[in-house]
Each structure stands twice: as C-alpha cells, then as structure tokens.
Amino acid sequence: MSGPVAAQRIAVIGSGGIGGVLAEAAHSAGHQVTMCVRTPFDRLTLETPGGTGEIPVSVVTEPGALGEYDWVLLTTKVQDAASAAGWLRKLDGGRAPVVVVQNGVEHRESIAGLGLQAQVLPALIYVAAERVRPGHVVRRGPATMQVEAGEIGERFVELVSTNDLSARTTSDFRTAAWRKMLTNLAPNPITALTLRRLDVLREPDILDLSKGVLAEAVDVARAEGARLTHADAEKVLSDYIEKFPPTNGTSMLYDRLAGLPTEHEHITGALVRAADEHGLPVPLNRTLLTLMRALRPMRMPSI
Known about the structure:
By secondary structure, the chain is α/β, with parallel strands linked by helices. Helix content is 37%, strand content 19%. Belongs to the ketopantoate reductase family.
C-alpha cells in the first residue's frame, strides 16, 4: 500500500449488516460517510467483539438530498438493486465508481439495466453481521473483502482497509465469486427453511444434504469457468462447522425472520439456471429452490 488515503466522500446505499460494516470501516479509515436508506434512524450503532459504539455518519432518506461523492457502495441485496435506482442515478456523474457488494455471481448484471456512466467494481465480503433493528448492526468478527483486480480495485483496497476489514484484489473474480457461492448455497436456504442457526449443519442428515448441494454446485461452477474442486466444497463445510460459532445465522435466515424477501433466486436460482444452460443435473439445489419459493412472509422474534 502507498500509505493513508486522503479523506473521501463515500455514499453507502443500504443500511443492513453489510452497509453498517462498510460504513464503520470507511469511517475508521478517515472518510466522510453518508448512508442512503429507506428507513430513517438517528445514529448508527455498531456492536462488535471489541465493544459497542456509535459511528458518526450522515443519514439521507431522499436522493434529492445528496451532493457529490467520490465513491458509491451498493450494499443492498441483489433483488433490491432495482429499488436503489433513484440513489444510483442521482449519484451517477461518471466520476464516482460504484462498488457492488453483493452475494451471487450477478454483480454487474444486477445494475446493468440502469444505464449508469460510472465504472462498476464487483466486490465480495465475508463477515458475520446482522442488522437487529434500523441503525443497529452486530458484527461478530472481522471482515474480509475481495474485489476485481485493476486500478479501481487497488484504489478501493487502499480506501477501506482497516484493522477490522482486510481487502484485497483478485485477478480471477469469477472463481472468487463462485467460491463465495459455495458458502451461501447450503447454509442460507437450509437455515431459512429450518429457522435454525448454523448449529443445524451439525445434524448428520443435514451435513450429508449440504455435501450433496455443494457437490452439484462445484460441477456447475467448473462449467461456468471457475477453478474449483470438490475439495473446495469440503473446506467450506468444515469451516462452517469448525470455525464459525453455531449461534451465527445467515443472511437468508435474518431476512426471513425480519419478514423480508430472501436472495434465493439470485443464489440457488442462479445456480439452477446455470445448471440448466449446461445440461447438468442439480436435483438437491432444485428442491431447495422449490421450497424457498413456497415460503410465505413471516415475522417473529429473532432466535
């Protein structure tokens, strides 16, 4: 790295767990942060292993209130990207890059229809984070990010890297994105369907199911050009069981508990669509997708 980056103006679209974590990292790196949100809140509170504190950010609920920014971080779920169109178009002057921080493998596709002038940087984030209410995010450990290699990617790594967020570029983002998909394809729908946290993966039958789901996924990922092996899938499951607390949840579980739409069409659905294009059988993933599509919205206390 070339040293500290001069203070930048950063707009974070979305106030979920990822939005809160990135707002915290950007502030810690010395930047001015504005959060673009639908549900207003007075202050952003981050609860972390090191303690709980407030992050001084500006909160804006209407695109018309925005000024000029140096970076735009899109942290909404893939299915909500279209609802961010007003923010993105207001912020689109062609100068500020748009960093798309999402699950799945459709980073550019999710905003392609908006006709933006800005350069797009696909990004992946690994972090256990949950928004427990508007303006209050729990981060249960440090975060790591991978972004597409290139000049913008290098600048972004310098922009946000802190003690609690480690960012790096990758020259093979396709493989990185499909590797991240492996971390989502089994735990996310299974926790959402069972309404259990990661402890459910320790059930022998669920573990066998998860292995089958990821074995199908590796075959599809390889057909899509990702350099993955079945050993990668085995490592994903062993990490979930050996490294992650069983009380952690997943984004789909949190969304279901909050009565929000889940990302199943852009995670499991994307896998099934790719499998169909390559003529590959994915019966386990197709079954999970069918069940996720059948879920009705709900609202209940967090578990």
